[in-house]
Design a protein that fits this description.
Elements (H helix, E strand, L loop, with lengths): L2 H20 L4 H10 L4 H22 L8 H23 L3 H30 L6 H17 L4 H11 L5 H26 L4 H22 L4 H24 L5
Length: 254
């Protein structure tokens, strides 16, 4: 790994960790950076997960004061996150490189659409009604499977579920989202490490960047208007999705 590649990966993980702590979407930056650095797709996804996980933990620590407001939801949603995250990670490990290469643009498109329109769709579906906690647990389990498998846009999906529960305080929602994300990625990390799917050279560099960005992003979140961060993430997400569709299906090779 060259110095330039190391700097690229560190900066991508820093930005990814910061985005995850504020609005989600960090994988739109960190995962493509690993592919650009020459890491194969499935190991890149596993390495991306382990790289951003410490940042998610750092973000959860930074939001620890707000967790007192979401104690009722934390345990059932946390269990769903753990079980779903493990299921998704095991599914990824059973996916061939060829299949995953072809899935990447579609996974990015799915995540980008959810990130862009998820909140609006959730508001229209509920029309102000609050879903019971059991419904949110089922939704969280499904999101966690996706999170363990890929994870792009997972943060905004979880925020949408919390909106269904009637939550409105963004800092409390971010606190719970970050803990759930840490649980999903944490159990996936264990599965990926045991399976030997992580590229540790790039991974260590990105772990340092992810911690830096995750803690700094959570600390700055109270002073930044989330809508500006969302616009930035959407620009990056649509750009990466378009690029990978052209790269994959324009030539049918990575």
């Amino acid at each position: 790994m060259t110095l330039a590649t190391g700097v690229l990966l560190f900066m991508a993980a820093t930005v990814g960790g910061a985005l995850n702590s504020v609005a989600g979407g960090g994988s739109f930056v960190a995962f493509p950076a690993l592919l650009f650095a020459g890491v194969a797709p499935v190991p890149a996804n596993a390495t991306n997960t382990i790289a951003l996980w410490p940042g998610a933990v750092a973000s959860a620590v930074a939001y620890r004061r707000e967790l007192g407001d979401v104690r009722r939801e934390l345990l059932p949603l946390g269990v769903a996150a753990l079980v779903g995250g493990l299921t998704g990670s095991l599914l990824l490990l059973r996916t061939s490189e060829t299949t995953f290469v072809l899935l990447i643009p579609w996974l990015l498109l799915f995540a980008t659409l959810l990130f862009t329109f998820g909140g609006t769709i959730a508001r229209k579906l509920t029309r102000g009604a609050h879903a019971p906690l059991a419904v949110a647990v089922v939704a969280q389990f499904a999101i966690s499977i996706y999170g363990g498998y890929f994870g792009g846009g997972m943060g905004i999906m979880m925020l949408a579920v919390l909106t269904l529960l009637g939550m409105t305080h963004i800092h409390g929602m971010n606190a719970l989202k970050n803990v759930l994300g840490a649980l999903i990625n944490g159990v996936a990390v264990v599965a990926f490490v045991i399976a030997g799917a992580v590229q540790w050279g790039p991974g260590v560099v990105m772990i340092a960047g992810g911690i830096t960005g995750g803690y700094a992003g959570a600390a700055a979140a109270r002073r930044v208007d989330p809508k500006y961060v969302r616009w930035l993430v959407m620009i990056v997400a649509w750009s990466m999705t378009t690029y990978f569709f052209i790269r994959t299906y324009g030539s049918f090779r990575m």
